[in-house]
Specification:
about 550 residues, alpha/beta, eight-stranded mixed β-sheet, five-stranded mixed β-sheet, 18 helices, about 20% strand, globular
Length: about 550
């Protein structure tokens, strides 16, 4: 049996993705479409390339697919739009299924989010909190999941009581896209560091919470996509008006690269951050109470808010794909949960860089030598900045050392240099990666969040001293702890640093230039290496440098 899970249009309008599982719920392959079509967030684009990659990995054709599981209820959102499933699949996925049309299963958006989190976790029973912009009828929901039992929806909150909407409003007030919430979060840290007072916009009462911007009346359970869009725009507009009153302006009067120096921008970002932190902290307690266990999971786009995640009680598990791409996995697992779960999900489920072809033009003018870990370590200790593209790509928005830019973070200036390499604003932070034994000494411990770089952790005095390049203005970092041979090149460099008496920690950030998705193929990696001011590229088992033999560009 083969199940293809998708986040696909028309309901899944951004972060489209495809995930293939077998009849035991084992993941064969999983990819976001943006990695293949090179369009950031793949807005309104079907996950055709991602689906084809999954099929190729399994060695099957579209005609072998038994079920297509969709992480949205398009029947509610787009009533009567499709004459039948064949027409829907042509629009949403685009594969040629031949004469054998697969069954189409539509999974509610929040249920798909919840499944992607619980079944990826090591827990046998857990509360699951989903917080995002909106599903079909809700913005936050609490579930109880238990191995071998049907999931139970404990409670939900209406769409326009959305924490995601409140954050979108701040992001757009700042001049960002609603898809740039990570920038808002990074800017909010300047408010925390400066002790900026914020107006309280969340009130918690018993087991409920109330936002300062009241929800709108809603057509619960029957709202169409047009209804949802109208209410989204109205609610976000009301939040923006609230931020404008707080800041005394309708937006920044400072260029984006200097927003950290603008008190109004910092105030708006930090105010929105506090809304999320206060509400999610309350919801976390309600989730554990409803499930009757301490273990809990979280997913939905708001679960990418690392600053909030780092303040929450454990044991907490968040998957590497908590955003909308993750419902491709969650929808598939709702149809066929995994038979065996022994450890948290490996994120390395995408395209294999070794399987992607390159031509002579891709490497023309580059110097190629066999990879030598001692040579690579020496380059890093000499202050060089480079990239790694090895093995199967990570799923999710965080680069986890298979498609990463790396550097030794021993000075604050390395942050400036890497931001320049990536053409990013200088106020943006970076994260660190190390081994578990050294991570204990560098920052607060997170049992699961540091697997996928999903939780901010306060750096210790040692961490601030030996790795200042990955410590943000508020004293936190967003760490990754690398176990075993999950990422062989970076792991080997960390071990070599340790053997040489150097702190075994590296700056780790996604391998992509401004406005680009994270690289996927070998050709992507080589093109990005050429366009960016990087000193070296590790591609598979080779080391590439720019310029003539013996020189480094």
């Amino acid at each position: 049996m083969w199940i293809l899970g998708v986040n696909a249009p028309p309901a899944g309008r951004h972060d489209t993705a495809a995930c293939l599982i077998d009849g035991d719920g084992r993941i064969v392959a999983f990819s976001e479409e943006e990695r293949l079509n090179r369009r950031r967030h793949s807005l309104y684009r079907k996950p055709l390339g991602a689906a084809r990659m999954c099929l190729a990995r399994a060695g099957i054709s579209a005609a072998d697919i038994d079920v297509v599981a969709v992480g949205w209820d398009d029947h509610q959102l787009h009533p009567g739009r499709w004459a039948g499933d064949a027409e829907f699949l042509a629009h949403a996925v685009g594969l040629d299924f031949g004469d054998r049309l697969p069954e189409v299963v539509r999974v509610g958006h929040h249920r798909a989010h919840a499944a992607s989190s619980f079944y990826a976790s090591p827990f046998r029973k857990a509360g699951v909190l989903v917080v995002d912009g909106h599903g079909e009828n809700e913005s936050s929901s609490i579930w109880t999941y238990e191995e071998g039992r049907a999931p139970r929806l404990e409670r939900s909150w209406q769409r326009t009581a959305s924490l995601g909407y409140a954050y979108d409003a701040a992001s757009t007030w700042l001049g960002f896209s609603f898809l740039n919430a990570g920038k808002t979060m990074g800017l909010a840290a300047y408010g925390r560091a400066g002790g900026v007072p914020t107006e309280p916009l969340v009130e918690t009462r018993g087991d409920d919470f109330r936002l300062a911007v009241e929800p709108l009346p809603e057509n619960t359970g029957r709202a169409t996509a047009a209804d949802v869009k109208e209410q989204y725009e109205l609610t976000v507009g009301r939040w923006r008006e609230r931020y404008s009153r707080i800041a005394g302006a309708d937006g920044p009067d400072t260029p984006e690269d200097r927003l950290a120096d603008d008190p109004r921008s910092v105030l708006v970002a930090y105010t929105a951050q506090r809304v999320v932190e206060e509400a999610v902290t309350h919801l976390a307690a309600q989730t554990r109470k409803a499930a009757g266990v301490e273990e809990w999971c979280m997913s939905g786009g708001v679960a990418l808010n690392c600053s909030t995640n780092g303040t929450l009680p454990g044991p907490l598990y968040i998957p590497p794909v908590p955003h909308d791409a993750g419902v491709a996995l969650g929808a598939a697992w709702t149809v066929c949960p995994p038979v065996s779960r022994t450890a948290p999900l490996s994120p390395y489920l995408g395209s294999d860089v070794a399987a992607s072809a390159t031509g002579a033009a891709d490497t023309e003018g580059l110097v190629r030598t066999p990879l030598d870990i001692d040579e690579l370590t020496a380059l890093l200790l000499d202050g060089r900045i480079g990239a790694v593209a090895q093995g199967r790509a990570e799923i999710g928005p965080r680069a986890l050392c298979h498609r990463s830019i790396i550097a030794v973070p021993d000075t604050p200036e390395v942050n400036t240099r890497v931001n320049r390499v990536k053409s990013r604003e200088q106020w943006r932070p970076f994260a660190g990666v190390t081994r578990p034994a050294y991570g204990i000494r560098l920052w607060e411990q997170q049992e699961y969040l540091s697997r996928y770089m999903l939780g901010a952790a306060r750096a210790t005095e040692l961490g601030r001293r030996v790795a200042p390049g990955v410590v943000h203005v508020d004293g936190t970092t967003r760490p990754q702890v690398l176990r075993g041979d999950e990422a062989p090149v970076v792991g080997a460099v960390l071990d070599a640093l340790d053997a040489q008496g150097a702190p075994p920690v590296l700056l780790n950030t996604s391998f992509n230039d401004r406005g680009e998705p994270v690289v996927d193929s070998a050709a992507d990696a080589l093109a990005a290496f050429r366009s960016m001011d990087l000193d070296f590229l590790v591609l598979g088992d080779a080391l590439y440098r720019k310029g003539t033999a013996g020189g480094v560009g």
